[in-house]
Amino acid sequence: MNREDFPLLADGKWAYLDNAATTQRPQPVLDALAEAAVTCNANVPRSPHGLGREMTRRFEEARDKVGRFFGASEHYTVVFTSGATGAINLVAHSYLEAFCQPGDRILTLGSEHHSNFVPWQQLCKRQGLDFQVVPILPSGQPDWAWFRQALSPATKLVALAHVTNTFGVVNPVEEVIRLAHERGIPVLVDGAQAAGHRPVDVERLGCDFYCVSAHKMYGPTGIGALLARTQLLERMPPLQFGGEMVERVTVEDTRFQPPPYRFEAGTPHFLGAVGFAAAVAEKLAQLDPEAYGPAWETLSNKAARVKKRRAEKRSPHKNKGARRAGKRKPDGPSNDGSQGNG
Question: What value does the mean pLDDT of the chain take?
Answer without folding.
Answer: 87
